Amino acid sequence: MSTPDPILIIAHARPDRPGKYAVEVAGEFIVRLTREPFLAGCRALIERGYDPTARAVLRHAGSTTDSLTGPIGEAAKLTVREPTRGNRPTFALWHPFPGAEADEAEPDRD
C-alpha cells in the first residue's frame, strides 16, 4: 500500500511585515498573515475539510527543503510559545483568541 503524497504548504515571507508569512497551498493563499505558517496552514486546511490524518510538509517559497512535516490534525492543535526569558520556544496547545474567528485567515488583522 502506498502512502499518499503530503500536502505542500508554502510559506511566503512578507517583506512588509518582518517575521510574518502568507501561506499557500495548491496555488491558493489560505492564510494572509501569520507568525506560524505551518501550524496556521494546518488549521486552515482543517477548516477547509481536509482529512486530519493527512500529512503536510512546509517549504519556504523558492526552496526545495522540507522545513516541517506532520499530520495536519495534530499540527492544527499547536502554537509556538515564546520564552519570557532564557529558554527556547516550545510547542503548546493552541486556543483561538476570545471573540476572534480564524484571525490568521483574514488579511492584515494582526
Mean pLDDT: 86
* Main sheet properties: 5 strands, mixed
Q: Proportion of β residues? A: 25-35%
The total domain count is 1
The number of strands is 7
The share of residues in helices is 10-25%
Alpha-carbon distance between the two ends: 43 Å
Strand order of the largest sheet: 3-2-1-4-5
Given as residue ranges, the uncertain stretches (5+ residues, pLDDT < 50) are 101-110
**Helix run count:** 2
- Assembly annotation: single chain
Taken in chain order, the helices and strands follow as: EEEHEEHEE
Structural class: alpha+beta
Shape: globular
Explain how this protein is built.
With 110 residues, the protein is an alpha+beta fold. It has one domain (7-96). Helix content is 14%, strand content 34%. It is built from 2 helices and 7 strands. The chain has helices at residues 37-47, 72-75, and strands spanning 7-13, 21-25, 28-34, 55-60, 68-71, 78-81, 90-93. The strands form 2 sheets. A 5-stranded mixed sheet has the order 3-2-1-4-5. Strands 6-7 form a two-stranded antiparallel ribbon.
